[in-house]
C-alpha cells in the first residue's frame, strides 16, 4: 500500500511538473452553438497536443468584436487565437495585424477549402484566417404555395420571377406574405441583404476612385424594387424585421419566400420548430442577367494576431479546429447534421452529409456564386460581397441602413434616402482621405 501511494505521489508530481511546463494559449471566441460545441470536444486536441493548454474567453458577438478589435489595434497581446468574421480579415491583414497561416500541416489540405470562402480570407494569395463555418444566402420557399400559384421555382430565378411569385402567393386574408426580407437597420442586418441585392442590379458602393455611387440609377433601381416589393407583398412592420423575426414568420407559415442565410435551412426544415418543415424548397438568390446574384458570403474564422508569442501552438490549434478530422469528430459525437457547414468541398461530396442535409448542394452552389474579390458587375477598389472591407464601413453601413429602413417604413422617399446616403458616404470618404 505504501509503495502504491508513493508511486501515485510520484506520478502526480510528474504530471504537475509537466503541466507547469505546458504552453498555454488564450482563445477569444463567440458564444454561438458551434463554438460552444467545439469547447466540449477539445479533449481530442489536448490528447494529441499534451504540451498545449487552452484558455477560453467566450463572448457575445458585439462584445467579442469590440474586445478583439481593441486588443489587436493596440497590440495588447491578450489573445493568441481570435474568432473574427470575413469583414475583418482583409482589413487587418493589410495592416499586418494577422499572421499568415502557412504552418497548418501537410495533412491540412488548404486546397479543400471552398475557393469563395478562402478568397474572402486571403490577401495577395495568402490565407490569414481559417474558416470554422461559412454561409451564403439563398431563397427558401413554400413548395405548396408555389404550386398553388401555378408556378415552378427555377433553381436560378430572376428578380422578376420573385416579384411575380410574391404577388401570386400573397394572401393577406390568411396571413400569408408573398416574401419576407430583412428591413431592420444595420450594416449586418438590412444592408447585408441590400448590398448583396444591389450587386445583382449592377450597383456598387464606390467607383474605382472611391466616389460614392448612391446617386446612380443602379441604386435607385435596387431600392425602389425592394421597397415596392415589400410594401405590396411583405409583412407588416417589415422595417423592424431582421433574421430572427423573419425566421419566426417563415416557421409559422407566414412567408411564401424568404431570402436569407443558408444556415437557416436547418431551422426551417426542423419539424420540432417549423410548421412548414416538410414543404420547404431552396433556390439560388435572384439575379438580373448581369452575371451577379443577390447572395452574400460570410465565415466565422480563426486567426492569429501578429503580437502573439505563441504562434506555433496557436497554429496547431487553428489547424485542429478547422480540419477535416474535426468535422468527422463532430459527426461521430453529434451526427452529420450538426457538422459546421460551408468550409470544405469534401464535406459536400460526402454522401452521409448529403442525406442529413438535403439543402447541402444549394448551399454550396450559393457559396460558389459569390466572389468577394470581384463582387460587382462594374470594377470596384474594395473586396467584400455584402460589405466593403474598409474600417469606415461599420459606421457608414449602419447610417445608410437607417436611411433605407426609413424608406421601407414610409418615413422618407426612396429618392430622399438615396440623396442622404450619397451625402453621408461622401462626407465619410472625404474625412477618411479616400476622396478630395
Automatic annotation (TrEMBL):
It comes from the Bacteria. Residues 1-19 form the signal peptide. Gene3D superfamilies: Periplasmic binding protein-like II. Pfam families: SBP_bac_1 (PF01547). The keyword Iron does not apply. It is found in: Periplasm. Keywords: Periplasm, Signal. InterPro entries: Bact_solute-bd_prot1, SBP. The keyword Signal applies. Belongs to the bacterial solute-binding protein 1 family. This is Various polyols ABC transporter, periplasmic substrate-binding protein.
Amino acid at each position: 500500500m505504501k509503495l502504491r501511494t508513493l508511486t501515485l505521489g510520484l506520478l502526480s508530481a510528474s504530471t504537475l511538473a509537466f503541466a507547469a511546463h505546458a504552453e498555454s494559449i488564450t482563445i477569444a471566441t463567440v458564444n454561438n452553438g458551434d463554438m460552444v460545441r467545439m469547447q466540449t470536444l477539445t479533449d481530442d486536441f489536448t490528447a494529441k497536443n499534451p504540451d498545449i493548454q487552452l484558455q477560453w474567453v467566450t463572448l457575445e458577438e458585439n462584445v467579442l468584436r469590440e474586445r478583439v478589435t481593441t486588443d489587436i489595434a493596440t497590440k495588447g497581446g491578450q489573445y493568441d487565437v481570435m474568432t473574427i468574421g470575413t469583414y475583418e480579415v482583409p482589413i487587418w491583414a493589410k495592416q499586418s495585424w494577422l499572421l499568415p497561416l502557412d504552418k497548418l500541416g501537410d495533412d491540412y489540405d488548404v486546397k479543400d477549402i471552398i475557393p469563395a470562402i478562402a478568397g474572402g480570407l486571403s490577401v495577395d494569395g495568402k490565407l490569414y484566417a481559417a474558416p470554422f463555418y461559412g454561409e451564403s444566402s439563398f431563397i427558401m420557399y413554400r413548395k405548396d404555395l408555389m404550386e398553388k400559384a401555378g408556378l415552378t421555382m427555377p433553381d436560378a430565378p430572376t428578380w422578376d420571377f420573385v416579384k411575380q411569385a410574391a404577388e401570386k402567393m400573397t394572401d393577406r386574408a390568411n396571413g400569408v406574405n408573398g416574401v419576407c426580407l430583412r428591413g431592420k437597420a444595420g450594416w449586418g442586418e438590412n444592408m447585408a441583404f441590400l448590398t448583396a441585392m444591389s450587386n445583382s442590379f449592377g450597383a456598387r458602393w464606390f467607383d474605382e476612385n472611391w466616389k460614392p455611387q448612391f446617386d446612380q440609377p443602379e441604386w435607385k433601381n435596387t431600392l425602389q424594387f425592394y421597397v415596392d416589393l415589400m410594401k405590396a407583398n411583405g409583412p407588416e412592420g417589415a422595417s423592424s424585421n431582421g433574421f430572427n423575426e423573419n425566421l419566426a414568420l417563415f416557421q409559422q407559415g407566414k412567408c411564401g419566400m424568404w431570402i436569407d442565410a443558408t444556415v437557416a435551412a436547418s431551422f426551417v426544415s426542423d419539424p420540432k420548430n417549423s410548421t412548414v418543415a416538410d414543404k420547404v424548397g431552396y433556390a439560388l438568390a435572384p439575379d438580373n442577367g448581369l452575371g451577379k446574384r443577390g447572395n452574400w458570403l460570410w465565415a466565422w474564422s480563426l486567426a492569429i494576431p501578429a503580437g502573439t508569442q505563441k504562434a506555433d501552438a496557436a497554429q496547431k490549434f487553428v489547424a485542429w479546429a478547422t480540419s477535416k478530422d474535426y468535422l468527422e469528430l463532430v459527426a461521430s459525437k453529434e451526427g452529420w447534421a450538426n457538422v459546421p457547414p460551408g468550409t470544405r468541398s469534401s464535406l459536400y461530396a460526402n454522401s452521409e452529409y448529403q442525406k442529413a442535409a438535403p439543402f447541402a448542394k444549394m448551399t454550396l452552389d450559393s457559396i460558389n456564386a459569390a466572389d468577394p474579390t470581384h463582387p460587382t458587375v462594374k470594377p470596384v477598389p474594395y473586396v467584400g460581397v455584402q460589405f466593403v472591407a474598409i474600417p469606415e464601413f461599420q459606421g457608414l453601413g449602419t447610417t445608410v441602413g437607417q436611411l433605407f429602413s426609413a424608406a421601407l417604413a414610409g418615413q422618407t422617399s426612396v429618392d430622399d434616402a438615396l440623396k442622404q446616403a450619397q451625402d453621408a458616404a461622401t462626407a465619410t470618404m472625404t474625412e477618411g482621405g479616400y476622396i478630395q
